Amino acid sequence: MSPLRQRMIEDMAIRQFGPKTQHDYVRVVADFARFLGRSPDRAEPEDLRRYQLHLAAEGASPGKMNLAVSALRFFCKVTLGRPAFGERLATVRQGERL
Asked: What is the architecture of the domain spanning 3-79?
């Protein structure tokens, strides 16, 4: 396990995130790293935007898009210590359920 992944897991444990949330957040960051082709700690704000466009082009559901936004904001703000880094990530409105 990479030190960066371990740090993210520890950050989530400190905040008492549930096991499913931890699993989902780690999966999103790993997918983001695969998309980038390099370590996610070297990402730029434009990379986050391109990743969101990639998810939208794949037809990702609003839930999946919003999960990615939450996970990447946590990763950037807490794990990387870059508070303003994920600010420009856009959440997706979900349709109302009956």
From this structure: Orthogonal Bundle (1.10)
